[in-house]
Amino acid sequence: MKFFIDTANLQEITQASAWGLIDGVTTNPSLLAKEGKQDSRELFRDICALVDGPVSAEVIALDAKGMLREARELAKIADNIVIKLPLTLEGLQATKALCSEGIMTNVTLCFSANQALLAAKAGATYISPFVGRLDDIAAGGLELVSQIRTIYDNYDFATQIIVASVRSPLHVLDSALIGADIATIPFKVLSQLVQHPLTDRGIDAFLADWQKTNQ
Ligand code: E4P
């Protein structure tokens, strides 16, 4: 299973890369806004240089023509740019066109299995079901990931599932058990994955015993 980091923060990306834990990055307009006013193209260029893996950059236009215009410009930034498009009919139309041009796509804001089926038929490289936002409305985000896994396996679709809107280590664990290809994880949750009180207690006990040896 691959891990992407869900952030546009360069420090977080640098730290997670140093840990050797991440295979790519996802961003969205809200994550970019958190980084304050700056040239987003510059920021994408910096992120792409830091990470040896796909970096998702989202289009803002709502019509296919506008999305394609933006996508082609974003794709020029670096070879590892993935164009993120919303799961609408216009977004699917643009996805299909980008697929035929060999540009990688990440279809985002997926909340149903039928939407994911359409994205795969459009040739999306990645589909992003938002588990946390579904859980927020008591709709069962992980159940959606499981349905998408079944459908993609039934028809051998090559579209990879990125579990998005991850809020906790349990989301990551359940995604791995379902067989999702990727989880895109916020920095805080990535840091939480390693934590276990018995590990900390074990280290303390080993160090205390070591000191008794007077070495
Ligand atoms: C990533 O591709 C998504 O944009 C992101 O995971 C959404 O997360 P949120 O629901 O916490 O905003």
From TrEMBL:
One of its GO terms (molecular function) is aldehyde-lyase activity. Pathway: Carbohydrate degradation; pentose phosphate pathway; D-glyceraldehyde 3-phosphate and beta-D-fructose 6-phosphate from D-ribose 5-phosphate and D-xylulose 5-phosphate (non-oxidative stage): step 2/3. GO terms for cellular component: cytoplasm. It is found in: Cytoplasm. Its main location: cytoplasm. Pfam families: TAL_FSA (PF00923). Signal peptide: none annotated. The active site is at residue 84. It comes from the Bacteria. Keywords: Cytoplasm, Pentose shunt, Schiff base, Transferase. Gene3D superfamilies: Aldolase class I. The keyword Iron-sulfur does not apply. It catalyses: D-sedoheptulose 7-phosphate + D-glyceraldehyde 3-phosphate = D-erythrose 4-phosphate + beta-D-fructose 6-phosphate. It is an enzyme of class 2 (transferase). Its EC number is 2.2.1.2. The keyword Lyase does not apply. GO terms for biological process: carbohydrate metabolic process; ketone catabolic process; pentose-phosphate shunt. CDD domains: Transaldolase_FSA (cd00956). SUPFAM superfamilies: Aldolase (SSF51569). Belongs to the transaldolase family. Type 3B subfamily. PANTHER family: FRUCTOSE-6-PHOSPHATE ALDOLASE 1-RELATED (PTHR10683:SF40), TRANSALDOLASE (PTHR10683). NCBIfam families: fsa_talC_mipB. Transaldolase is important for the balance of metabolites in the pentose-phosphate pathway. This is Probable transaldolase. It comes from Desulfurispirillum indicum (strain ATCC BAA-1389 / DSM 22839 / S5).
